[in-house]
Design brief:
This protein is mostly helical and 428 residues long. Helices cover 70% and strands 1% of the residues. The chain contains 19 helices and 2 strands. It has a two-stranded antiparallel ribbon with strand order 1-2. A hairpin with a 2-residue loop joins strand 1 and strand 2. Helix 7 packs antiparallel against helix 19. The longest helix is centred in the C-terminal third of the chain and has 34 residues.
């Protein structure tokens, strides 16, 4: 191979390598934290495999033609300017934070998440455009592999004396965080199903979306959390709103029938712990388990105290990863307020919140155009974002690395639709 041919060869393989990295993220994180002793782990606590995958994706995109400065300059001003404002405010908040090292580490992570989204967006808008849907399928398939790994881990944990089922430990520090994986898989799966031709005579067009959706719905129930369960309803409703009238009923019935078929399986497969399975979801929803573990009351107290703190530093906030030491309701155990809006205002103040709101509104204003141009890509990306968006109202989606990785991939794919550079429209 000549020197002149090397860059072209590297660029050709960059796209497939990016798909492999996207698919690898969840199972790699699980494999590197497969520790039944549940000991303290820097790998798990600082989410190093996820951050490593994101850095590898940025470098892969660079090999595939990504150039940071032109890519950022190509973003709409309604995105690039607020993004710059957010960054300036976040740097100021980190500098002023009581625990500056913690704030700087988490700000560095946030920058990596953002750069991952920008790098992937740039490539999916150009020479990786044919790989958009494959990227979402790869992400979902990787999470499905993680689901299998979680079952292997749980089956071995049964024999461990004193195993803490609330902690769990495989890529999470609390069983409720498994909901991030479940909702991401369910959201992308339902979105793929919504974009599929559901005619029974052509199973090749819907079999993969069907299997991914089934796995996601099953894992939602297996994790035993109400928030993921309710997020599935939000995902389905959000997709039905943007679909044609004739497609809505098919999607609704498909999700209902799949849920009815796979969720009850958790009565047989979920660990014998009060924290898992459809039985726990039903029990907590009806109030029996909630009386013993009043999570709603705990959250409302955290939100009330967080709101008070926000009024004391409204402009820039307190910096990231400083919430635990500022809010008494954390009980020195919780690290975030379990609400995305509260967390954004606490971490970055009004400056950060308004900046991110402008970016979000820009995306919402273009959503129908993206769906009209390429529903096979837009709907699954929207499903993943809708699910995590719903879950972010009661949990730390913007605190933990893996859900932010999913958000970065989904936004990159979605926003790359109908992107034009020079005289060439990226294929959709």
């Amino acid at each position: 191979m000549s020197t002149a041919e090397s860059p072209a060869t590297v660029s050709r393989y960059a796209g497939p390598l990016a798909l492999l990295l996207i698919a690898t993220c969840a199972p790699l994180f699980g494999a590197l934290t497969f520790d039944l002793s549940q000991g303290a782990s820097v790998t798990r606590g600082l989410w190093l495999p996820v951050i490593g995958i994101e850095i590898a994706l940025i470098l892969t995109a660079r090999a595939g033609g990504f150039r940071p400065v032109p890519a950022i300059g190509f973003l709409p001003r309604s995105v690039s300017w607020p993004l710059g404002t957010w960054f300036a405010g976040a740097v100021g908040a980190a500098f002023l934070a009581d625990d500056r090292p913690a704030a700087v580490i988490f700000l560095t992570y946030s920058v990596i998440h953002v750069m991952t989204a920008i790098a992937l967006h740039d490539r999916f808008a150009n020479n990786w455009a044919p790989l958009r849907r494959a990227a979402l399928v790869a992400l979902a398939a990787g999470i499905a592999a993680f689901v299998l790994l979680a079952h292997i881990y749980a089956s071995l944990a049964v024999a461990e004396q004193g195993f803490d089922w609330m902690l769990f430990g495989l890529a999470v520090t609390n069983v409720r965080h498994l909901g991030f994986y479940a909702v991401s898989l369910a959201g992308i799966g339902v979105g793929l199903l919504a974009a599929s031709d559901l005619r029974p005579t052509e199973p090749g067009k819907w079999l993969i979306p069907f299997l991914l959706t089934a796995a996601g719905l099953y894992f939602v129930a297996w994790t035993g959390g109400r928030s993921p369960f309710l997020s599935v309803l939000v995902i389905t409703a959000a997709l039905m709103v943007v679909m044609g009238p004739g497609q809505r009923l098919k999607l609704f019935l498909s999700v209902i029938l799949l849920a009815a078929a796979v969720m009850p399986l958790t009565f047989l497969t979920a660990p014998e712990s009060k924290h898992y399975g459809l039985e726990n979801i039903v029990g907590r929803t009806t109030g029996e388990a909630e009386k013993k573990s009043p999570s709603i009351g705990i959250r409302t107290e955290m939100w009330a105290q967080t709101a008070q703190k926000i009024t004391e530093a409204p402009l820039l906030g307190y910096g990231q990863n400083n919430w635990r030491t500022k809010v008494a309701a954390s009980n020195d155990a919780n690290a975030h307020p379990h609400n995305m809006i509260m967390q954004v205002l606490f971490d970055w103040g009004i400056v950060g919140a308004l900046s991110l709101a402008v970016i979000a509104l820009t995306g919402l204003s273009r959503l129908r155009g993206w769906i009209a141009a390429n529903s096979s890509v837009a709907l699954p990306a929207m499903g993943g974002l809708a699910g995590l968006g719903a879950m972010s109202m009661t949990d730390g989606v913007l605190f933990f690395a893996f859900p932010q990785f999913v958000i970065a991939v989904c936004i990159a794919v979605l926003a790359s639709i109908r992107t034009i550079r020079g005289n060439d429209a990226a294929p959709s």
